[in-house]
């Protein structure tokens, strides 16, 4: 056992690294990127600024931001042969599986992006993936909708261009919608980093073997896909729709969650770190009400969500376990109002988390951290002799 005496399932009480990127205080519901509060960043910054802040540690000057934007735009083309890989998927393929595969496939078309040591080589790999990832994400959505793939328009901002690539239609000029752009920009900022969560820890440990940035991100996308992690935003809407179909009987679902025999996870509730409230959920809840109001959308599912949250917050099962709405509880309601299909919700989470994953990978590589290789406590069989097949 290599001297290991205790294990920590799920690393609930294990620190894996020192990091200067994101600060969380679970008791006080504080979230800061490089010392700046997400409340201020969500209000005053745009997503590309926050991406720069997370990756390089400082809010960019105008010149730095313009250069970052220009360098990303110069890398926003994707090799045409990548379309053959996309074509190979059935239309029914989940976009997260497609995105993880395409992100890994990018390595073959960008051989220089396998692991790199110098800051300059890292910068090149970073602007490549920042430019190409939104294209691939939009392609996964268009593939499912049997729409022609769109390359975007470099005269647009980062998030505007993402919207154009997702929502443009072949037979109608694309009209930008500032409500949609602003809502999405804020959502991407709120998802941008979250210290050592499951998918970020995955990116860091895959990167620690020097497998390279794109391979590490591909692994991170797979980890995020799980319904206990980023996949929860899709599971929340599916749950809320089920409750709506069930006549809005939220009490039934609260009771199901407390059923000892077959406990039903109330998706969008609970968090490993936040034990009073998830500051992102507070902002997203308010934004959901504003966006639906601005777009003139009445979504009964928002009322069901609010009803479910208010009942749960009074219920001793949830209060005792400190279960509160998390970032995934309300986000799907906004994505849906913006015209984003449910199966694309976790792709939106990945688009937001991209700069955080990049920042954490870069920090790990610059700090020359050792390969991640934990030990175990062996609880298997002692030595036993081999038994020939005919004697078994
Ligand atoms: C994200 O880590 C991050 O920072 C993640 C994230 C990020 O930005 O990267 O914030 C994004 O992943 C948010 C979480 C999204 N997932 C969900 O909404 C899925 C539902 N939530 C749970 O699965 C759960 O709350 C977790 C995964 C979020 C946290 O799990 P923990 O910390 O391992 O807690 P646990 O599973 O040990 O549960 C503790 C108790 C248990 O009851 P007891 O065994 O003590 O009786 O609380 C219960 C659990 O059964 N519980 C729930 C519940 N979550 C925990 N009961 C009902 N519904 C739930 N959602």
TrEMBL record:
UniProt xrefs under CDD domains: EcCS_like (cd06114)
Gene3D superfamilies attached to this UniProt entry: 2.20.28.60, Citrate Synthase, domain 1, Cytochrome P450-Terp, domain 2
A GO term, aspect molecular function: citrate synthase activity
A UniProt-annotated Pfam family: Citrate_synt
Domain of life: Bacteria
Alphabetized PROSITE patterns for the sequence: CITRATE_SYNTHASE (PS00480)
Biological or metabolic pathway of the protein: Carbohydrate metabolism; tricarboxylic acid cycle; isocitrate from oxaloacetate: step 1/2
Catalytic activity: oxaloacetate + acetyl-CoA + H2O = citrate + CoA + H(+)
Keyword Lipoprotein: no
Keyword annotations of the record: Acyltransferase, Transferase, Tricarboxylic acid cycle
Family: Belongs to the citrate synthase family.
Protein name (database record): Citrate synthase
Organism, as annotated: Aquimarina hainanensis
Organism classification: Bacteria, Pseudomonadati, Bacteroidota, Flavobacteriia, Flavobacteriales
């Amino acid at each position: 056992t290599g001297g290991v005496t205790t294990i920590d399932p799920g690393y609930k009480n294990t620190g894996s690294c020192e990091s200067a990127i994101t600060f969380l205080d679970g008791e006080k519901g504080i979230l800061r990127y490089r010392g700046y509060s997400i409340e201020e960043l969500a209000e005053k910054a745009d997503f590309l600024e926050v991406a720069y802040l997370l990756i390089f540690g400082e809010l960019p000057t105008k010149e730095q931001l313009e250069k970052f934007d220009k360098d990303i735009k110069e890398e926003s083309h994707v090799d045409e042969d990548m379309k053959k890989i996309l074509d190979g998927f059935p239309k029914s393929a989940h976009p997260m599986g497609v995105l993880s595969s395409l992100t890994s496939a990018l390595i073959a078309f960008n051989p220089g992006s396998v692991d790199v040591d110098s800051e300059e080589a890292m910068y090149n790999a970073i602007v490549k993936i920042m430019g190409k990832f939104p294209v691939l994400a939009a392609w996964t959505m268009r593939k499912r909708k049997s729409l022609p793939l769109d390359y975007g328009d470099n005269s647009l901002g980062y998030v505007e261009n993402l919207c154009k690539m997702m929502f443009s239609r072949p037979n109608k000029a694309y009209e930008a919608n500032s409500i949609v752009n602003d809502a999405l920009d804020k959502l991407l900022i709120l998802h941008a980093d979250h210290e050592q969560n499951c998918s970020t820890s995955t990116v860091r440990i895959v990167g620690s073997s020097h497998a390279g940035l794109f391979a590490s991100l591909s692994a991170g996308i797979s980890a995020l896909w799980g319904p206990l992690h980023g996949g929860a935003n899709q599971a929340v809407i599916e749950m809320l729709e089920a409750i709506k179909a069930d006549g809005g009987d939220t009490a039934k679902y609260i009771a199901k969650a407390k059923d000892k025999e077959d406990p039903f996870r109330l998706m969008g509730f609970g968090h490993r770190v936040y034990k009073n409230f998830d500051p992102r959920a507070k902002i997203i809840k308010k934004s959901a009400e504003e966006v639906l109001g601005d777009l003139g959308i009445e979504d009964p599912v928002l009322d069901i969500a609010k009803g479910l949250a208010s009942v749960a917050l009074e219920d001793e099962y949830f209060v005792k376990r400190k279960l509160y709405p998390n970032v995934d509880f309300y986000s799907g309601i906004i994505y849906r109002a913006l015209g984003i299909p449910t199966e694309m919700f976790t792709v939106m989470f990945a688009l937001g988390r991209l700069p955080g994953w990049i920042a954490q990978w870069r920090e790990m590589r610059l700090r020359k951290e050792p390969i991640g290789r934990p030990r175990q406590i062996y609880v298997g069989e002692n030595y036993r002799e081999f038994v020939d097949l005919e004697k078994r």
